[in-house]
């Protein structure tokens, strides 16, 4: 859906496994969501979708680039990864018949509520499907990009606005009305700049000072966010503030990371299968 942007553009251009919903595994997954990342704020917990939108928003204007037609599907991919990291969904096991990531179906692992409206709505959709669907199909269904009129009910509506409101509730964004000639638009300027700076700094350092040259040694949420930032065409916003030499290093390392074969990398670490499956889906689109 998108490729790594260049510096010249910087300015603008199933099967239900019937697992008990209150299992200790699910509770632990939610409680320890970011505990492996020492840089994460202990006061504010953000979902992957919230982080992607925050990276895509213009700080003062409070809206994403009008030229960005990738962020909507990127946010849906973030929902799938977030659910997988929280132990709610997984890919069906490998088999002789279905080996490739994009052929394997998304299975419900637990329908325990997450407390996030978008995540729980998606869980209900996945649980309600008569036959399991693939990662790529779910991204299409959740964005409403399907030719099947009987599956339009799976579309998640007003996703950006709902995520923005969640960020307002967490004190990171504020709400304003702006006039655009013929209409008024609700915008969400950044009110807590330090939280966005923390997020940008974490990603910059992961590609520079803390570079490990191995995606399987990276924090899973950091890896997921890099994949989603690329897929949502907001990666340029992460590295734009770097000096030229550091910018080139960070972008080249990120390109090398995203150019890896998702099939090969997913087979190396079971916990990152959904991340690589989402990347594979966007690479194919």
UniProtKB/TrEMBL annotation:
Record field: transmembrane: none
Lipid bilayer topology: Peripheral membrane protein
InterPro entries attached to this UniProt entry: GPP34-like, GPP34-like_sf
One cellular component term from this protein's GO annotations in UniProt: Golgi membrane
GO biological process terms on file: Golgi organization; Golgi to plasma membrane protein transport; Golgi vesicle budding; retrograde vesicle-mediated transport, Golgi to endoplasmic reticulum
Keywords noted in UniProt: Golgi apparatus, Lipid-binding, Membrane
Pfam family, one: GPP34
Chain intervals with Basic and acidic residues compositional bias: 10-32
Region listing for Disordered, in residue ranges: 1-40
An example Gene Ontology molecular-function term: phosphatidylinositol-4-phosphate binding
Compartments reported by the entry: Golgi apparatus, Golgi stack membrane; Golgi apparatus, trans-Golgi network membrane
Family: Belongs to the GOLPH3/VPS74 family.
Entry protein name: Golgi phosphoprotein 3 like
Native source organism of the sequence: Calidris pygmaea
């Amino acid at each position: 859906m998108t490729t790594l942007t260049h510096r010249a553009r910087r300015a603008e251009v199933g099967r239900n496994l019937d697992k008990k919903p209150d299992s200790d595994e699910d509770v632990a997954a939610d409680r320890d969501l970011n505990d492996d990342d020492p840089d994460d704020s202990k006061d504010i917990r953000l979902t992957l979708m919230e982080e992607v939108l925050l990276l895509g928003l213009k700080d003062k204007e409070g809206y994403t680039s009008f030229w960005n037609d990738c962020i909507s599907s990127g946010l849906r991919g973030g929902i799938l990864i977030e659910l997988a990291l929280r132990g709610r969904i997984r890919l069906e096991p490998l088999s002789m018949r279905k080996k490739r990531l994009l052929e394997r179906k998304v299975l419900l692992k637990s329908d325990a509520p997450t407390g996030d409206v978008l995540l729980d709505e998606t869980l209900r959709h996945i649980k309600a499907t008569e036959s399991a669907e693939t990662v790529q199909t779910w991204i299409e269904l959740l964005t409403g990009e399907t030719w099947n009129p009987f599956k339009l009910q799976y579309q998640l509506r007003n996703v950006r606005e709902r995520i923005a409101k969640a960020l307002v509730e967490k004190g990171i964004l504020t709400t304003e009305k702006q006039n655009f000639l013929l209409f008024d638009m609700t915008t969400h300027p950044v009110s807590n700049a330090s939280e966005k700076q923390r997020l940008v700094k974490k990603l910059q350092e992961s590609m520079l000072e803390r570079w490990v040259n191995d995606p399987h040694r990276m924090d899973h949420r950091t890896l997921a966010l890099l994949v989603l930032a690329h897929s949502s065409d907001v990666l340029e916003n992460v590295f734009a503030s770097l000096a030229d030499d550091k910018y080139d290093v960070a972008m080249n390392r990120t390109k090398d990371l995203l150019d890896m074969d998702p099939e090969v990398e997913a087979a190396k670490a079971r916990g990152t299968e959904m991340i690589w499956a989402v990347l594979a889906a966007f690479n194919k689109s």
